[in-house]
Amino acid sequence: MKFVMAIIKPFKLDEVREALGTLGIQGMTVTEVKGFGRQKGQTEVYRGAEYVVNFLPKVKIELAVPDALVAQVVEAIQAAAQTGKIGDGKIFVFNLNETVRIRTGERGDEAL
Amino acid sequence: MKFVMAIIKPFKLDEVREALGTLGIQGMTVTEVKGFGRQKGQTEVYRGAEYVVNFLPKVKIELAVPDALVAQVVEAIQAAAQTGKIGDGKIFVFNLNETVRIRTGERGDEAL
Amino acid sequence: MKFVMAIIKPFKLDEVREALGTLGIQGMTVTEVKGFGRQKGQTEVYRGAEYVVNFLPKVKIELAVPDALVAQVVEAIQAAAQTGKIGDGKIFVFNLNETVRIRTGERGDEAL
Amino acid sequence: MIKKLGLTTTALVAALAPVAAFAQDAAPELNSGDTAWMMTSTALVLLMTIPGVALFYAGMVRKKNVLATMMQSFAICALVTVIWMVAGYSLAFGTGNAIIGDLSKVMLFSVGKDSVFPAAATIPESVFLTFQMTFAIITPALIAGAFAERMKFSAMLWFMGLWSLLVYSPICHWVWGGGFLGSDGVLDFAGGTVVHINAGVAGLVCALVLGRRVGFGSENMAPFNLALAVIGASMLWVGWFGFNAGSAVASDGRAGMAMLVTQVATAGAALAWMGAEWVVRGKPSVLGAISGAVAGLVAVTPASGFVLPFGALVIGLAAGVICFWSATWLKHTLGYDDSLDAFGVHGVGGLVGAILTGVFAVEAVGGTPGALEGNIGQVVTQIVGCLATIAWSAVATYVILRVLDMTVGLRVTTEQESDGLDIALHGERMQ
Amino acid sequence: MIKKLGLTTTALVAALAPVAAFAQDAAPELNSGDTAWMMTSTALVLLMTIPGVALFYAGMVRKKNVLATMMQSFAICALVTVIWMVAGYSLAFGTGNAIIGDLSKVMLFSVGKDSVFPAAATIPESVFLTFQMTFAIITPALIAGAFAERMKFSAMLWFMGLWSLLVYSPICHWVWGGGFLGSDGVLDFAGGTVVHINAGVAGLVCALVLGRRVGFGSENMAPFNLALAVIGASMLWVGWFGFNAGSAVASDGRAGMAMLVTQVATAGAALAWMGAEWVVRGKPSVLGAISGAVAGLVAVTPASGFVLPFGALVIGLAAGVICFWSATWLKHTLGYDDSLDAFGVHGVGGLVGAILTGVFAVEAVGGTPGALEGNIGQVVTQIVGCLATIAWSAVATYVILRVLDMTVGLRVTTEQESDGLDIALHGERMQ
Amino acid sequence: MIKKLGLTTTALVAALAPVAAFAQDAAPELNSGDTAWMMTSTALVLLMTIPGVALFYAGMVRKKNVLATMMQSFAICALVTVIWMVAGYSLAFGTGNAIIGDLSKVMLFSVGKDSVFPAAATIPESVFLTFQMTFAIITPALIAGAFAERMKFSAMLWFMGLWSLLVYSPICHWVWGGGFLGSDGVLDFAGGTVVHINAGVAGLVCALVLGRRVGFGSENMAPFNLALAVIGASMLWVGWFGFNAGSAVASDGRAGMAMLVTQVATAGAALAWMGAEWVVRGKPSVLGAISGAVAGLVAVTPASGFVLPFGALVIGLAAGVICFWSATWLKHTLGYDDSLDAFGVHGVGGLVGAILTGVFAVEAVGGTPGALEGNIGQVVTQIVGCLATIAWSAVATYVILRVLDMTVGLRVTTEQESDGLDIALHGERMQ
Ligand SMILES: Nc1ncnc2c1ncn2[C@@H]1O[C@H](COP(=O)(O)OP(=O)(O)O)[C@@H](O)[C@H]1O
Ligand SMILES: Nc1ncnc2c1ncn2[C@@H]1O[C@H](COP(=O)(O)OP(=O)(O)O)[C@@H](O)[C@H]1O
Ligand SMILES: Nc1ncnc2c1ncn2[C@@H]1O[C@H](COP(=O)(O)OP(=O)(O)O)[C@@H](O)[C@H]1O
């Protein structure tokens, strides 16, 4: 099993979910995060006090996938999340030792 | 060392923490996340505009544990977080290369 | 490639970012989390109902780095995030199998 | 206003006397200043419920129940308006007997542009009855604090509708509508018994019958957004000028004095609760300050047309300390879950105020002396008024709840409660 | 007020008659009670826009547009104040002809401390014109609901400024300023045509010309913080007492009755929308309850000085159900994106109210009988009033928008829209 | 009101003249319309502090200090109420001498239901003193903006209590209570010197003595929830009608004109700040628009009973631009941390208004001509009034702060400041 983590632009979440759905993937966990990177943030000014907000709202998607699907999953995410503009984000792939489905106690690929 | 990540129902957090406490574990990091899975979300309607919110609020627990404790930890989480109803969540186990306690610089199991 | 995750005190974020900047690192992802640990939380009282809030607001930093930089990165974070008081947090290091830059499709160290 | 009737033991005679006196001169004339103040007061008292109570309560619940809590105040406002129009006003202020009014004003068919209610002869009846309507609205809205976060919305509507007709209208009649408590000389300028003791006791019965919230005492039930509660308390404070000074039903010196003593008692109670908390807990809290203010407002309500500033200050200080004790120590000791302290603040504060009105009443202000001016019997009269209110409010509330429990059912399911009432009952969420 | 002029077909004569009558006795005298009520009403109507409409609308948009939405109401308040001073008041209430006023009151140079507007002779002209100013402010503020989340701020200011002069002032003159609709006997006590139909129709045109928001129908556009909307709706409800009862321009029985019927209709409409939703959708929503209340307030606006409580209740119930239908079914079926239902609530509710005023008007209240009292022609007169308003509002709004689209441009870029107007237009964020 | 005394150089004579004139006819009679308006105004001015200032300020701080900031306004409201009752009113409005009142009204023992304050003879004294109390409340509440996010709560209470007695009451006496500034002919209708310059200067001294917030200039201190600030500013705007038009202490043409010019100046200033920002920064901000509105309200305060709409518009435009400059450029250049611009808006805006009142005063409105009507000396008189206020406010504030710093200590610890005052001082959090 592998664990795929992707940082994407928030408004791309729905498209990515749909793309993964067509691969038969229905489970994932999503977190609101702040991204620092090459993309520059916007400036806020409050009564003359300027704050350059150099983080940008991003969304982190995490999903465990069977080894066989990893390549497809990465490709699907990349295709769906891409705008071609700076700040599109990253995909990271990790080894996953074990997965347990809490409800049933199933382990491994069955637990996904 | 291993790194255990669990996605659970929010109202189970206290029970899980207590269960882990009885194993002598006192450190962990918790994040509010949104889960997509088999469990279906509720429908919101605003002046006729319907939004099926297909993510559900979940809580992610992350904790680094010595190898010796992993099995117990996973079991404890599974037992405490289980309701038997769909949406109970997952536990993932990763290899952890290194841990550092920022305050002291301790490394490895001592840092946990 | 390695994946470094650090849990730090929120007000140390700017210093850590600067420290990493001097190593040439400009990308990272930040999440607001709640930490449980040795550090004790504060008590809130509402009309006689007491709640000891035993989690504390922390910030999680995640960044993928080339193997060559890991040691320096860990050191930089530890130095910048340290106050010497309890609750300073932890640094975790993971193996990272693969990284993809969504915008360009670059992989591996080039994608960072 | 009708409260003026309450000053003598021969209330009906007294009530008609000024009107008769007027009649000798000429037909009583509308006074545009009185009318202006009463319309303003009506707007201020409405403001107390929406958004006042709505915010005060919504600011103290958990995030998942914020909207549902506001919805209770808002829906009660709409529902009771119609009920008051249909029959509530008639039952409360129709002539009737010592216990209940009559049906002469049902549907307000008898109210025209130029109608005047005899005991409020300088303003149009339309204004008098709308002003009174806002009192009929806020009283049930206050009860809702006791069962927050766990009652079915349908059951709540049924309960409030029945309660308004079976509990509010009669007690209102007893005190202000020509009923026996007013005749007995019970002093209640703006609603210590009718509104606050009544709502507080009903709330306590609700809390007991519905039972505690799931997780009460174990789960963290910290208020989600106390800023909302501070806005709500502020609206209550400001709006209460209409509540108390408006109860003079005139724009005169008595109204002015009612406004002044309201301000003084409220400030005193806010400082007292804050101070008590500072001593006992080590920190003065925002929730404490606003709770104290509301306790002071409650306690000065019956007293407002009868006392002078110094008496008001004492009433406020007493209410602040005593309600702090009831909302913290008493509730936790007895273990009932009066979620937002409808009883602890309104019931207890109302009792403190009703009794101390008998102590601090000044003849030169409201026509009746209190214990400090030698009329010790007034305290007894006040206690009788409290007991009558408590008895009927408790019994009738209990019966209504039991009947509803057997028919529509009072409580949401455990799952709905844990999902939160916003999404479970109304299909909406604070994002 | 001038609305009184609307009661006869010989409006100008009628308008001067009472003044003349007065003049025979003595110079008309200021009445301190009337003045007090009108200053209060002015404050109440201002409260309706800031923070009323600002919150009502801001509570329904997405987080990224909350501040920009509040900014629209606030900036309109400032802008229209100056425009009303410069020329708006003069165009609306200067004598002029049947279509438009004149420039005699430009810059308010002719208004002194002791000036009196003849048809409102018991209050200072300064109060009359400030009261009317608050109406001129809220009307464009209501339109903004239709194009929320996508209009350029600069374009919005241009649009509102021009609209105020070219659409609001003339229609205000037609009905209240001595123009042809008032002369024709159209009944509009507080602004069913002038304010609500006018704003609603202009909103619909805006929604059509600007087009839908990016992602309309596919993205989740759930309101970010409905608690804000509930506060806003509550402020609207309370403030509307000034709007409707203030339109009596006196502190008297007609004002009192206007207040009472406002309360009744609003409650009825809130219950009706809530009930309709409960039946159709299975859950009564908070957004539904407050939308219903606003629909009721809108519908009773033209009727308020003319009907009795029972008529008001029917008007409220009708408005609640019909506006529920227009804001849910109609909008989604026709597919236009009237973001916050400026047309669905104000346009449709205004039409319901304007027409039913012709049905339920009672001679004893406002001097004119309605269809139920045998004067069926009044319904026709009302419809004529609606059509004239719709026609001018639609055409002029369309022309202004087209001109602005070709010059300053109406819409933000797609990127600004997706970033949110708060940061894109104002450089600020809700943290 | 007493402000009328300020119109002539023989103030005391003038003050008694109308009363005497009345007395010849009969005892001065209460006027129900005046009383209604003054009770309404009292409610409106209270609304300005709670929740007005509370929200305006809380909306500009960081999340961790939202509740503590609201708490300051709320606690000041309670504290000053009691202080005003105990001695503040007596020191300000007791006869006394040219510098300070006396102790004749201590504890309000001398105030009964029928008491009348001679210079406000048409309303009950209870109303007059409660109206004045709301001014005594808001002034210290405004100061709190200068030291937001870093002062100890206990020190704040001590400071405000002492400041109210030692600074507010005397200066109030100087201008309105029969003191030397009123006698000298300083025009201050509703509190340009007494309230705004006074609070602004005291705020500046606080900011300097307490020092900057930890992280000032480096950390992100962006406002957490500007929506709250918009609600607060709106409440201020609406409530200010009571502040300014209420300062006529009558429901008459002068009150009406005060209301109108308040509206105009506020709108002008909001547009001016917004415009200045648009030009200088490229974007008009919401914070700018509301700050401008408040600056306009401040500046028109002394002028409101003396000028006509055109003068008010100029005053507003000037205040908007100048306060934009002081709150942005001046503060950042000099480097003091006046957190929420108590000085930048109230101090500077008050100065602009006080001086321009001397320019634009119109004899036909307030009895005194200004420089434009040839009375150039009035500008000098106004400047004298400002300087006297600045001098006493600065010196006395400084002394009080130093004494408190040596006794209770002024500032929270660095750790408390970084944890936030909500949890550190009050044990509560916005969840
Ligand atoms: N080394 C990294 N480790 C973790 N997250 C990163 C890293 N670099 C970038 N990110 C995340 O990816 C987002 C996009 O990166 P950015 O450099 O702005 O654009 P791009 O990926 O298009 O080059 C960032 O906002 C951040 O959340
Ligand atoms: N493949 C996955 N990878 C990551 N998280 C997952 C995955 N599948 C499910 N989850 C998480 O677990 C939660 C519960 O999953 P769900 O399918 O609803 O129920 P169950 O685990 O009981 O089968 C989801 O809401 C999601 O947060
Ligand atoms: N075993 C663990 N796994 C994951 N996170 C941990 C673990 N132990 C501590 N943490 C995180 O580190 C933070 C600091 O830990 P704490 O024990 O309070 O202090 P210290 O690190 O100084 O000993 C905690 O709040 C928590 O977020």
TrEMBL record, chains A, B, C:
InterPro entries: N-reg_PII, N-reg_PII-like_a/b, N-reg_PII/ATP_PRibTrfase_C, N-reg_PII_CS, N-reg_PII_urydylation_site
Residues annotated with O-UMP-tyrosine modification: 51
Top-level taxonomic group: Bacteria
Gene Ontology cellular-component terms listed: cytosol
GO biological process: regulation of nitrogen utilization
Pfam name, any one: P-II
Quaternary structure and interacting proteins, as annotated: Homotrimer.
PANTHER family membership: NITROGEN REGULATORY PROTEIN P-II, NITROGEN REGULATORY PROTEIN P-II HOMOLOG
The family this protein is said to belong to: Belongs to the P(II) protein family.
Protein name (database record): Nitrogen regulatory protein P-II
Organism: Pararhodospirillum oryzae
UniProtKB/TrEMBL annotation, chains D, E, F:
One matching Pfam family: Ammonium_transp
Keywords: Ammonia transport, Cell membrane, Membrane, Signal, Transmembrane, Transmembrane helix, Transport
Topology term for the membrane: Multi-pass membrane protein
Signal peptide range in chain numbering: 1-23
Entry's Gene Ontology molecular function annotations: ammonium channel activity
Subcellular location: Cell membrane
Similarity field: Belongs to the ammonia transporter channel (TC 1.A.11.2) family.
Protein name in UniProt: Ammonium transporter
Lineage: Bacteria, Pseudomonadati, Pseudomonadota, Alphaproteobacteria, Rhodospirillales
